[in-house]
Design goal:
about 160 residues; alpha/beta; 5 helices; globular
Length: about 160
C-alpha cells in the first residue's frame, strides 16, 4: 500500500510517499511545497492545494497521515498553520483518501523513541528506516516520519482487528 505523510506549514509543507508491505517499508518520493511569503494568504493556501494535488496525481497514494497542529505561543502562527493544514486535508478528502492525524510527539516517539526528538534526530532515523532515500530537507524528513508512523499505526490496528 502507498501512503503519503504530510508535515503542514504555510511557508513550506513537507510530503513523503512510502510503500508499506507488512512491516517492510520503502521510499517512493519526497519533497516540499513552498509558498511565496509575500503573497496573500488565500494565494498561499491555493499554492499548497495545487502542489498537493500534483503530488497525489503523480504518486497515487491510497492512504494519508498528517501531523496535527501544535499550539504555539503566537496565536496568529497557530491559526495560519491550522488554515494550511485545513487546505491540505480538504485536498486529501477530495481525493477520497482516509486520513490519520498524529501529534508531533507521537511521530517523534514512533520514529526516534522519544517525543522530544529534534529535527536532526528525525532526519537521521528516517534515513536509517528508508535507506538510500535522498531527503529533500527537514520538512520532507518530518513528512516521511509521519508516513512511517502512519504505516506502523495502520499495521498495529489491522493486527488487532480495529481498522484497515
Amino acid at each position: 500500500m502507498k501512503l503519503i505523510g504530510l508535515d503542514p506549514g504555510l511557508g513550506c509543507t513537507g510530503w513523503g510517499v512510502i510503500a508499506a508491505e507488512g512491516n517492510r517499508l520503502s521510499h517512493i518520493a519526497n519533497g516540499q511545497i513552498r509558498t511565496d511569503t509575500k503573497a496573500p494568504l488565500p494565494e498561499r493556501l491555493s499554492t499548497l492545494a495545487t502542489g498537493l494535488r500534483a503530488v497525489l496525481a503523480k504518486h497515487q497514494p491510497e492512504d494519508a497521515g498528517i501531523e496535527e497542529v501544535f499550539v504555539n505561543t503566537n496565536a496568529q502562527s497557530t491559526l495560519k498553520l491550522g488554515q494550511a493544514r485545513g487546505a491540505l486535508m480538504l485536498v486529501l478528502a477530495d481525493a477520497g483518501l482516509p486520513i490519520g492525524e498524529y501529534a508531533a510527539r507521537f511521530v517523534k516517539k514512533a520514529i526516534v523513541g522519544t517525543g522530544g526528538a529534534d529535527k536532526a534526530q528525525i532526519h537521521a532515523m528516517v534515513s536509517v528506516l528508508l535507506p538510500g532515500a535522498e531527503i529533500a530537507g527537514a520538512d520532507a524528513a518530518d513528512a516521511l516520519a509521519v508516513a512511517i508512523a502512519h504505516a506502523h499505526h495502520r499495521a498495529s490496528a489491522k493486527a488487532v482487528g480495529q481498522a484497515a
